[in-house]
Write a structure and sequence with these properties.
It contains 21 helices and two strands. By secondary structure, the chain is mostly helical. Strands 1-2 form a two-stranded antiparallel ribbon. Helix 9 crosses helix 20 and helix 13 runs antiparallel to helix 14. The radius of gyration is 26 Å and the shape is globular.
């Protein structure tokens, strides 16, 4: 179609999915028990100690640090140590600001502003730093709670010391499994790639596009984790080398299935079963399976070990602060929505405006559509949670030990269900938060239930209002860049494997040599993952131009086709090499 004849795209409204989709329960993650058990171990050890000392009223400050045990469970232990330490440092700094503000002013309006600014900074830092789940919400919850607890300035250092103690316990709990399974996270990431390859090989034609995208994402995530490190110790180099062989083999499944969804080719059930068996061996800490690679695959691994990994580099964390970053409108949404929710709660005379701030902060996702879903899930989950809290009142009123144990049970249930559905996890978060408020002294249950429900509704309402006021059209810009990058990566990959023309004269100096095939293929894989992520986020935003659905689908189709062709060529370049 000529450029001048294209219709002008119209701005889109927020896409609202069916209620059934919002409330649907998903499958639990493969490591759901790790954050759940870690949080219970860290929080339980410290809270039971405080209970034995008769100072359960100090549990608020220690829990701010202990909840850092929820982070980093999908990362290898060197990266996990840095991530949990970074979250602990951010928690300590945020708690210091919140406690200092609480000791210097009694103005609720001013404290709401402090909490809103902290919530926005938490969101920006966690997204830019790619911290991963549970994201900024835990730090926002603990700092906001501390901001609305009466303080004296002389008490702040001691309370911060308790937070640091809890963070230290959380760090030790997160790192303790390294003594038993030092390469457990790397094994799990490789097992996910093998399982994704098995699903692609055994799935029907209608499921292949989603299965191909899932396998490309799993391989991309594992490759970043298994990137060769020249300074690594010998045991790690050997373990990583064995896992890389399995990763290379799982990636080959992209060349084993046709790209077209209407092609009903037979699936390779035997290969899929073998991949699943290898994945089970990895998860159960069994010896790595010995596989044979082609000479081309072995040469690729040697190249990666001798030089820097030929893969697309992730953008710097400071990249999120540049002008035009899609994270900046989300940060503004958080600050505006949290402040408005807190002020509205204060104006209505609700006794705990901090809950409204936390509710508003909890609903913000990558797009307005996803934020609407989260708001609905939050409201429904909190309503159910209030019913659970009411049912637990006869038990919780029997003593402080019952309070601690019930809070730990709710904490475990939250982490066990958060991956299945946010509304289901919220049904346990709410009673846990209410039980924690009674650690210092028992409070009127009717007042707490009423305040919690009002603050939940206000937080969700004003949080969504901020999504309407602050648009994020930069998601379209990110999508355009991702589409351009994929087209360039596809052309680069095509050039890298094209046969060289007969040399009749020396090439001009200004012409750059074609990129290596391995580098081009990995750049193409990264571009495919980035475009799919950008398209999913942009599709949920509103008041922006219509998305180029046809060019996106065509670019993904060509990119996956070129990737499959390159992998097929790699598998047939030579006979299998010795393992």
């Amino acid at each position: 179609m000529p450029e001048q004849s294209r219709p002008t795209p119209r701005a889109r409204r927020i896409p609202l999915p069916p209620l059934r989709q919002v409330l649907r329960l998903g499958s639990p993650t493969d490591i759901w028990h790790k954050p759940a058990l870690s949080a219970v171990a860290a929080v339980g050890a410290v809270n039971l100690t405080l209970l034995a000392l008769g100072r359960l009223d100090l549990a608020l400050y220690t829990m701010a640090g202990c909840l850092c045990a929820l982070y980093g469970h999908g990362l290898p232990y060197p990266a996990r140590a840095r991530t949990v330490a970074g979250v602990a440092a951010g928690t300590l700094l945020s708690t210091a600001v919140a406690l200092t503000a609480a000791s210097l002013t009694h103005s609720v309006a001013a404290l709401v502003v402090v909490c809103a600014v902290l919530a926005a900074l938490h969101k920006l830092a966690c997204e830019a730093g790619r911290v991963g789940p549970p994201g900024a919400l835990i730090v926002t919850f603990t700092s906001t709670t501390c901001a609305f607890v009466p303080q004296r300035l002389a008490e702040v250092p001691a309370h911060l010391a308790l937070t640091a103690l809890g963070a230290a316990v959380a760090w030790l709990v997160c790192m303790a499994p390294a003594l038993v399974r030092p390469f457990g996270p790397e094994r799990i990431l490789t097992a996910r790639a093998l399982e994704a390859a098995a699903r692609l090989l055994s799935g029907g034609p209608d499921r292949r596009p989603a299965a191909r995208a899932a396998l490309a994402a799993a391989v991309n995530a594992a490759r970043h984790t298994l990137a060769p490190a020249p300074a690594a110790a010998e045991p790690r180099r050997q373990a990583v080398a064995g896992l890389q062989r399995l990763l290379v083999r799982s990636e080959s499944a992209l060349a084993s299935t046709p790209i077209h969804t209407d092609t009903g080719a037979d699936t390779d059930a035997d290969t899929a079963r073998r991949y699943r068996g290898w994945a089970r061996d990895l998860r159960r800490n069994r010896p790595l399976p010995v596989i044979e690679l082609t000479a081309a695959e072995a040469a690729e691994l040697r190249e990666a070990a001798e030089a820097a990994a030929p893969t697309a580099r992730r953008p710097s964390r400071w990249h999120a602060l540049r002008p035009g970053s899609p994270l900046l409108p989300i940060t503004l949404r958080v600050a505006l929505g949290c402040a408005a929710a807190g002020w509205a709660s204060m104006a209505m005379g609700v006794g705990r405006p901090g809950w409204a701030v936390v509710t508003a902060a909890s609903i913000y996702q990558a797009s307005a559509g996803l934020s609407w879903q989260r708001a609905l899930q939050r409201v429904l989950g909190n309503l159910l949670g209030l019913l659970v809290f009411t049912a637990l009142l006869p038990v919780s009123s029997t003593g402080q030990l019952a309070l601690v144990l019930l809070a730990l049970a709710c904490n475990f249930a939250t982490e066990a269900t958060i991956a299945r559905s946010y509304w289901l996890a919220s049904a346990f978060v709410t009673p846990m938060a209410l039980l924690m408020t009674e650690f210092a002294h028992y409070q009127d249950a009717r007042s707490m239930v009423t305040d919690r429900w009002l603050d939940t509704c206000l937080g969700a309402l004003f949080g969504l209002a901020a999504c309407l006021v602050v648009t994020n059209r930069r998601t379209s810009t990110r999508l355009d860049r991702a589409l351009t990058a994929l087209l360039a990566a596809t052309e680069s990959a095509r050039t890298a494997v094209a046969p060289a023309p007969p040399a009749v004269a020396p090439a001009p100096p200004a012409v750059a040599p074609a990129p290596p095939a391995v580098a081009a293929r990995r750049r193409l894989s990264h571009a495919l993952v980035e475009l799919r992520e950008a398209a999913d986020i942009a599709s949920g935003e509103w008041r922006q131009r219509a998305l180029p659905q046809l060019p996106i689908a065509q670019a993904e189709r060509e990119g996956h086709g070129q990737l499959a062709a390159m992998l097929d060529r790699r598998g047939h370049e030579s006979s299998p090499a010795c393992p």
